[in-house]
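Lecture 7 notes. Example A: sequence first, then its structure tokens.
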Amino acid sequence: MATFVLIHGGGGSAWDWHLLASELTARGHDVVVPELPIDDESAGLAEFGRTVVDAIGDHTDLVVVGQSYGCFTAPLVADELPVRLLVLLTPMIPRPGEKPGDWWDATGYRSPEGLSEAEQFYNGVPAELVAEAPSHVRQQVSAEWNEPWPLAAWPDVPTKVLLARDDRFFPADFVRRVAADRLGVVPDEVDGGHTVALSRPKQLADRLTGYLGTAGRAGQPSPG
């Protein structure tokens, strides 16, 4: 049994993971779903990381999953705690010293044209969840936007990059390029859009639990 630590993206909340969390617990795993203090104007990356570490508490055998902007926080946790596996889902992959606000130009990101916010983020998500989603969005007023990412190097933890083939916000080719440039890896792929945890929670849970056979427990080398 592993503990999956699910870190939401920008403006997000624990609700973003509720379907995936149910799938993982049904498979016998523990799930920790912290809410980052994005509505606190004084909170920065250190506070984001501390919030997750505190939420983990005494849980062990950790698989840390960061989604989108949550990938600025996930490696901070992996740098502080024994983590079995780090998964970057539809990710923003940071570089040492990079400010989140600078990431967009540094990666050559181009916003999709002619798409509504719902079309960018929620393609493939059932209509009733798309209608409910705005009630769970939180205003992000925290202080991390102009803070340099604090790690000097990527944590020495097995890391998977997982893109969504139908992602309209971070298209597959974009994620492949950034993952190759920044981590030297080829991403794995799953069907679905940017919020794949809402559109295909069962398939995502299958993929995440399938990773458990490829990464040793925390403190042990990954096979291969």
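Example B, a different protein, same format:
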Amino acid sequence: MNRVLTAVALTATLIITGLFGAASSAQAKVLSYGQGVYLLNRPIVLQDWQILRGAGVGKTILKAAPGYKGMLIVNAGVGEANPVHHPGVEIHDLSVDGSGTASRGIYLKAVDDLVVKNVEVYNTTGNAIEHRGIQNSPYTMRQTWANVTGRDSGGWCVYNGLRTRKVTYTDIRATGCRAGGMTIDHSEASAVGIIASRNGGNGVWIRNVYSINLTNVVTNGNGGNGMFVQGAVYSLGTNWTAMNNKVADVRFSNSAPQPSFNYGVTRNTMIAGLTAGHTDVCQFGNYDNGDETPLVVDSGVDVQIVGQRLPSAVGCSVES
């Protein structure tokens, strides 16, 4: 049976006592939901050092109640007139369903030591999962995103940006979102395993970053570029596969002027292992039309690409 939950019921026990930053994850309060569908007509507000835990993806579903247009899960920093950092929020083992009306599934602001693990978000009108730091403030630090899926939403599937550092991504899936798949708009990130497919815009957008390392990235069937790199400095990509995207499979753009882009145009960056181009056999995504350009490197961009291959090199047999 579906249960309708209000903000009062959800937040009454979430107040953390003690000095700001004095708690640890071992001392955090846990808000648990068992197997079932929970209808939300107000957001769950997570306080500092709060853990939200379900019974598993597809088992615990936090769902927008009929007609609800707001956000579903936020942290205490969202909506603050003078936002500050909020440490220790964790979200585990659940699904978030926007019902086609909720603006965002998960929206977090300036969360240090954030953990998002085994989480799926879908059917929102805006970004499915989003985190932002705070402008003109110290960097948000230390985040772990693992086994995270954003899909079938009106904005970006997964978006993380603005003054954030030291983020680890593992097994991220971004598919079927109107604006695009995944945006990394922060430096000092490592990712192993990103799949971005069938999105309306770019599959993966790398924007104004320093020292990132992206391994095993697959982008296919997206309506924009598969990989759109707009300012990456001293960064590394390993084993990228980009096929059947509508514009270019991989584009390194020179449209990254300073000072709005702190690091300027891409330089001192290497891609080791790139498979890019169209294939009629693999049939990847909505934009399988054969018109895209495999690789575009704008003038003034400093990137070294080692080991570029055709799609047949990754197991898609080409008809003779």
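Note on Example B: The first strand starts at residue 3 and ends at 5. The two ends are 56 Å apart (CA to CA).
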